[in-house]
Amino acid sequence: SQTIHQWPATLVQPVGSPLSLECTVEGTSNPNLYWYRQAAGRGLQLLFYSVGIGQISSEVPQNLSASRPQDRQFILSSKKLLLSDSGFYLCAWGQGNEQYFGPGTRLTVT
Amino acid sequence: AQKITQTQPGMFVQEKEAVTLDCTYDTSDQSYGLFWYKQPSSGEMIFLIYQGSYDEQNATEGRYSLNFQKARKSANLVISASQLGDSAMYFCAMRDPRDSGGSNYKLTFGKGTLLTVNP
What we know:
The structure holds 2 protein chains of 2 kinds.
Chain A: E1 3-7, E2 10-13, E3 19-26, E4 32-38, E5 44-52, E6 55-58, E7 64-70, E8 73-78, E9 87-95, E10 98-101, E11 105-109
Parallel strand pairs in A: 2-11
Antiparallel strand pairs in A: 1-3, 3-8, 4-5, 4-9, 5-6, 7-8, 9-10, 9-11
Chain B: E1 3-5, E2 10-14, E3 19-21, E4 24-26, E5 33-39, E6 46-52, E7 60-61, E8 64-69, E9 74-79, E10 88-95, E11 107-109, E12 113-118
Parallel strand pairs in B: 2-12
Antiparallel strand pairs in B: 1-4, 3-9, 5-6, 5-10, 7-8, 8-9, 10-11, 10-12
């Protein structure tokens, strides 16, 4: 069966510091991968998606970037965090009509 | 542009009763997909049910059913026999058909409804 992992689970970072969030998927090959952000009390906003290794599409302009160095690995990064980057970050993988989400990373920028 | 509207910020239901969570959508596309996800306080997003725009039958998954009314552009979630563990945020989402080439599906989410099940 397929599983999706995210780490870390929680993170507190100062403004201006770098960021690296990792997502890995097991039990499937060549999945579509997605990064979403959820601000407090809000729905999810798609940030990036990837249909293959090295293929990244950005949905919103921001100071975040994404990379897919391996088939089942998706990384969300920033060189300098802003206060507005605080939120709950969810990685998802897609197959057919469904998307399955990881447990999420709660990021607080102070 | 697509839009998903969930007009109920919060809903209360008595344990063992049924509850309907509303979702309306706006799209000019003929082919699309609608989803419901559950988000408990732990934060994970749990896939509940999917309805394709061409599906003639309403989708059902255990205690969950989707009341799909295409002409009204509504896709309400019905939870039968509510349980205490059903207390959570519920999100309606739509698949973006413009990116349905291959198997890539981008989802647009509503703002969610917080369901509280009372004992």
